[in-house]
Amino acid sequence: MGIDPRVAGAQRYSVDLERPGMLHAAFVRSPHPHARVLAVDASGVPSDCVTLLPDDVQDLHLYGCQVRDEPVLTPLARHAGDIVAAVAAPTAEAAKAAARLLDVRYEELPAVFDPVQAVSPGTPLIHPDGALSAGEAVSIGVRPLAGTNVCHRFRLVHGDLTAGFGEADVVVQQAFRTPGAAHAPMEPHAAVAEWEDGRLTIWTGTQTPFNLRGDLAVAFGLEEERVRIIAIPMGGSFGAKTFVRHEAPLAALARKAGRPVKVVLDRTEEFVTLNRHPSVIRVRLGAKRDGTLVAKELDCWVDTGAYADCGPGVATKLGYAGVGPYRIPHVRVDALAIYTNLPPNGAFRGYGAMQSIWASERTMDVLAERLEMSPLELRRKNLLRDGDVFATGEVMHDVQFERCLQAAADAVDYERDPRGKGLCVLLKGMQTPSRAAISVERAGVGYVIRSAACEMGQGVRRSLQLMGAQMLGCEPGQIDVPEPDTDTSPFDTRTTSSRSTHMMGRALEVAVRDLRASGGERGYGEVHNEGGLDPDTGQGVASTHWHQGAAAAHVTVDEETGKLTIEHLHGVAYAGRVVNREGAELQNEGSMIMGLGTALFEAIEFADGQVTNANLSDYNLPAIGDLPKRFTHELIEREGAEVHGLGETVLPPVPAAIGNALFSLGLELHELPMSAERVLAAVDARDARAAAADSAPEARVPVAVDGQGLSG
Amino acid sequence: MGGGTAVEWLAPSSLEEALALRAERGGDTTVVAGGSFLAILMNQGFVAPTSLLSLGKVQELRGIDVVDGELRLGAMVSHRAVERDPVIRRDWPVLSRAFGLVASPRVRNQATVGGVLADADYASDPPAVLCAVNARAVLRSPRGVRQVAIDELILGFYETCIAEDELLTEVRVPAALGPAVYRKFRSRSSEDRPCVAVAAARSAGRLRVVVGACAEVPQHYPDVCAEGADGPIDDAVAREIGAVYAKRMAPLSDSRGSAEYRRRVVAVEVRRAVEMVGADGAGNGAGREGAGGEE
Ligand SMILES: Cc1cc2nc3c(=O)[nH]c(=O)nc-3n(C[C@H](O)[C@H](O)[C@H](O)COP(=O)(O)OP(=O)(O)OC[C@H]3O[C@@H](n4cnc5c(N)ncnc54)[C@H](O)[C@@H]3O)c2cc1C
Fold it and tell me: Does B220 score more than 80 pLDDT?
């Protein structure tokens, strides 16, 4: 045992891969956000290089995890950074140099960079032929709107909205925005692809080995068994290494070269590979005078960028998470996943939940102020409890929202003095439907546990060792957990949405029972979670178990500069039962720190579709000095409960808790990040309102202003 | 990097040799000190030098000395060394403070006094404070030596008066006679560059206030500061100086803040800096602990 191999520098990542005879790849990327490739001239490329040009991929197919809209090399660049050709050379430097010698001629096309604008009439279509629904690979039916840039529309209808607002004594409405963000894992995307006898093997850091296998089989027109994915431990991912990214052009290049080819993206390329969905969310919320919620309407514009990727899933999850953990009899959600000419946006720790929770939980405080009610009391009054029916029609079990919320409030002594303090409580789903399988074999000493659960620093290997040791009656160190390999690991949907410990733990129990029943040598276990939501009504099973959490923030503001100090941030996650305490605490801390970056300063900036801060000097990540003065968190457990996922739970509530803390000081923030400049503008706006109220004391100035200049 | 071809690495071990190479090779070779600025430009493909002249082995450039009360910092002294040196901490605390507010320890171990002045990045911390304490840069070539003030050295965005055959070898800082502060206002992460940087120093009845990170070059208006000549500076005067700085400046916009926002912050931060140095008389006392920053 001894030192963690990651600390000792002994862990091998995909950036460290070597294969005999390997070449190195560089991608040629479009400098234009929307442009047709007219011609590619490779005559200047040295003869020891292999080039991959549009003609080389004529036999390949479009792929995509939810919508088949992505080509291996694109003849039509849909974002600045889209891959139009590739080069393999003996060294990475030579490949980069050769890529610069490829001469590509483009015809530029009009482009669109804002999701609200992208759905207004007359905007250029980014996938004019429409896109195919991927059918079986998807967890939800995809509902593109023909002739528009909408690749998916998710709707949820619960009760009768018009009647609901009719019953309301108070209605507030507000629009909120969130920008794109970078996952910024320490290790960039990297992989090696190799073909042998028509069989493709890829070693890559991925969270989704089986999805990758399936999608590449589609792209290359192969049986799934002819594609093998070996999932190397990742140096961080946070959602960045999901589905097909660099692997498709790399595999095509290796096919052409007839040799293994490796690629390592540089930091600039990371910013055009996969980001977080920018969003615009408009909330309308109605309540009775006593604070009983009666109606809620959410309109969401979710910018999925140039390709759908899992944008339909993100829009869906964002849509229902925005309802919040409340009993609301009348709800309507309309969430659009929209193509724009920005780099593709995909899974990002929280999977859309942060965006809509930011909007919805901020609106709760606006409503509380209008009702002259405590935000804590308003929430408590409406929280879902055991046996209540959620807007999706699901009956809620093991409901812990009130405990989470109360714990957060108590941590900052909210009830004694709420000034400068803000709360947020959340509900978030887990990937549903999903399937997880695992096998256990007796080894010389101890056991081997095989699964496709991928290690990205979250400690899934450790969790499997700990759970296995307990069930099998051995030491954690006697359990070997080899890296996922689609040839030998049993099927798993994917390592996302904080599901692995929960799903794999249950599958492992089955596998261990099987091992005991069948002679002690070998056991196999599989669990299925059925469900899914109807995309047109939002009814069904959103999640087989719920991620429940809360956060509280206490802030002070330098009102002359807008600079904010977080005096205290507290996060609460419902864990059910804790498997690996240290690991769980690190997940809480990591989630909260990522939430702070999102709340305070992270934003990918664009000028005409070009990322203008594609490096970690211009794009700020939270540093140790950015931690709140007090930074605390807790895991809520319940005797006899099942294991609940918690890898993301306390990220989504952080921005709203801070935003609500500012709101308690009269500072209204509607857009992330809450930069010092925006806070100062909010100070000015508050002072202007106060001055107006002074000059006309009888006219009460409304706090909530209607939709901020939304054209859609 | 350089298109797959090896980059020449020149590593002279004496100043004489370094100056000779610099004079001989001029623009064909790029000087590298800590490399923290240059490496970013190279990784991003903005520059692709074929030859690098490293000053890493030149021991003569690593000195921290006090000669006749004047501080002499060799060009290769790291930010971390300025931050931690006991003599600088005692006698020029504002310098320790300002260099210690740069980025993170990782960057400060690498970044050098010469590098930060020669790269002339508008958003660096040290130029404003060095300018406020009347530091001079020593430029050397086989042709001779000259000393230039910081506002003569830095001419514009990434532009200095260093000639193609010259090296910046030293920075000289006069004895600190009065209180001085450096306030680094960051609008984003604690490891970010400044959005607005204000250095103020008072000595022998003179007040100097320099604003960095807001324009191409550090900004200062001696006529405005003349107000703060003798005796304690009262709050109204501090406020007035802040207001005039904000009004007169034409701040730039970047992702740390818009021009309009910077103007607001300049008024506040200049006022606060002046209040801090103005409180204790005409500034003839010992260098007061250079507090400041947002804390
Ligand atoms: C992540 C990060 C964060 C940062 N944050 C801050 C910050 O908050 N505040 C701040 O002030 N700065 C910041 N910086 C900038 C950093 O301080 C500079 O990169 C550094 O000072 C440059 O010093 P260097 O020795 O590494 O220079 P180098 O990169 O080696 O050289 C810089 C330039 O100066 C030239 N040069 C160097 N030495 C000489 C010499 N003696 N004579 C002539 N020419 C010379 C080189 O040719 C080159 O053009 C940050 C940098 C990084 C990487």
Answer: yes
In angstroms, rounded to a whole number, what is the distance separating the alpha carbons of residues A29 and A397?
Answer: 49
Residue for token digits 């050379």? A89
> Residue A93: its pLDDT value, please?
93
Contact assignment for B195 to A622 by CB distance below 8 Å: no
* Contact call for residues A126 and A149 (beta carbons, < 8 A): yes
Domain boundaries, chain A: 434-529
Residues near A187 by beta carbon (within 8 Å), at least 6 away in sequence: A13, A14, A15, A205, A234, A235, A236
Q: Which domains does chain B carry?
A: 8-54 (3.30.43.10), 59-173 (3.30.465.10), 180-284 (3.30.390.50)
Q: CA–CA separation, A419 vs A355, rounded Å?
A: 25
Bridge partners of B74?
Answer: B170
pLDDT (0 to 100) of residue A500: 85
What integer pLDDT is reported at residue B292 of this predicted model?
Answer: 43
* B284, two tokens: 């003839």
Q: pLDDT tens digit string along A382-426?
A: 999 999 999 999 999 999 999 999 999 999 999 999 999 999 999
Q: State the SS3 of A387-415.
A: CCECCCCCECCCCCHHHHHHHHHHHCCCC
pLDDT (tens digit per residue) in A628-645: 999 999 999 999 998 888
CATH of segment(s) A434-529: 3.30.365.10
Q: Which of B189, B268, B294 sits opposite A622 (nearest CB)?
A: B189
CB A127 within 8 A of CB A341: no
> Is B106 at the interface with chain A, CB within 8 A?
no
Contact B251, B263 (CB under 8 A): yes
Confidence band, pLDDT 50/70/90 cuts, at residue A706: very low
Candidate of B19, B42, B82, B107 to mutate for ligand 1, largest count of ligand atoms within 8 Å of Cβ: B107
Q: Quick count: other Cβ atoms within 10 Å of Cβ A374?
A: 17
What ipTM is given for this predicted complex? 0.93
